[in-house]
Structures are given as C-alpha cells and as structure tokens.
Amino acid sequence: MDCYKDFAHIYDELIKGDIDYKKWADTILIFCDEYKVQRKDYLDLACGTGNITENIAKSFLNTWAVDLSYDMLTEAEGKLRDSGIKGKFICQDISSLNLNRKFDLITCCLDSTNYIVEKEKLHEYFKGVYNHLKDGGIFVFDINSYYKITQILGNNIYNYDSEDVYYIWENNLEEDIVDMYLTFFIKQGKVYKRFDEFHRERAYTNKEIQESAIACGFQIAKLLDNYESKALREDTERIAYVLKK
C-alpha cells in the first residue's frame, strides 16, 4: 500500500477543522521574534499539502519544502502558487537531508517525526537538521506523545462516514510501534473508489527525544503542550519542541 498517494488529494478535506494551522504558524513566528531569528530562509520538513508551509512562508524571503510523497508535494506546490508564494519543493527522506543550504527556521509539524521508526535514524534526522540550520537558528517540531500512541491510538479502530468519504482505520501496537491500516471509499459520481493506506509511527518518550537532540548539539529552548504555553502533563497528546542551534 502506498503512503500519501490517493490520500494526498483528500487530506485537507478530512482534517479540516482539526488543526488550526494559522495559530500554530503564528506561535512559531513568535518564537522567531523571541530568539531573534532572521526571516530569510525557511525550510518545512514533511510539508504534506503545505498548510504550515503556506502560513509561515508569507513571512520569509525564501521557502523550501521537503516531503517523501510526490503527491503531497504537488498539492503543496499548487497551494503556495495559488497564494502567490514561490518555493522550492524537494522529494527527500527527512532523516537523510542533503540540501546544500542552511536555514534560519526549520519546522516539522503534525507528528511527522514519529514516522522515523528506527532509533538510529532519529539521531541522523536531528544531526541533519542541525547541519542545515544557521547559527542561532531554531528547529520547531512536534510528536504524538508516548501516551497518545500507546494509550489512545494503539490497538484501536476508528471510522469516518460522510456523504462523499467513508474510511476504516485499524491500529495494531507492538513494542512501541503502531501500524495503521486505513481503507478509504471515495464517492466518484454514482460509485465509490476504494484505496488503502499503511502508516507506521514509533512512540518516543520525551526523554528519548531530548537526549537524541542534545547529543546532536541542540539546546532545548521550549517544551509545549500542543503549541500552548502550558506545562506538559502525563496525558499530553502532542508535545511541541523548540530547539536552538
């Protein structure tokens, strides 16, 4: 099953209302002001359909976006072009960055870091981001917390039903890794088209994330509960990090 292929074209419709991308982007831009980050070169990792990219790119001179899915990149490029924003879109693995350029701000939002399921590659990911940051630059990313993956997503079944879309989402958790099997039925005229997706995420503890980042040279500047200025709790579902070089 391909990841984010047919799904790319209905992604925005399905998550509409779930994430306040503008609010997240505004929060990240506040961090840029707080840490005196120049608004020149911006890189968005695992950009998806470009929702965060678009909102932040408006405040930067140059924008680059990376994703492993050509279909997602196509959606993102069209979205930014429609908004009058020029950007460079690169198909690349975020754990093996090679862009020959450095950035003032790098982001990786909506738990894309959890998709790095090999712990060795997590270290390569942080090292790659560190090497692509300018001195004084910041890296802002978030993860699905260990609690969310093991206690909420793991071994559960979800479904969604609307006039045009129906899907079943089945999860299987084993040794901190959740396998997610999604079956979609999309209305096309009088018939429904079926396609399947497979996604896999690793549950990382906050300690594991911080230790790996620090080992690569980062300073931990902030930890946030879902991009909010409040203390982390045992049942925090999304942890956002601000790392400084």
Give a nutshell description of this structure.
With 245 residues, the protein is of the alpha/beta class. The protein has two domains: 7-145 and 205-244, Vaccinia Virus protein VP39 (Rossmann fold), CATH 3.40.50; 148-201, S-adenosyl-L-methionine-dependent methyltransferases (N-terminal domain of TfIIb), CATH 2.20.25.110. It has helices at 11-15, 21-34, 51-57, 70-82, 119-132, 146-153, 206-215; strands at residues 41-45, 62-67, 88-91, 103-108, 133-144, 157-161, 165-174, 177-188, 191-202, 219-225, 238-244.
How would you characterize this protein structure?
- With 245 residues, this protein is of the alpha/beta class.
- The chain has seven helices and eleven strands.
- It has two domains: 7-145 and 205-244, Vaccinia Virus protein VP39 (Rossmann fold); 148-201, N-terminal domain of TfIIb (Single Sheet), CATH 2.20.25.
- The longest helix is centred in the first third of the chain and has 14 residues, at 21-34.
- The chain is globular and about 55 Å long.
- InterPro entries: Methyltransf_25, SAM-dependent_MTases_sf.
- Its EC number is 2.1.1.234.
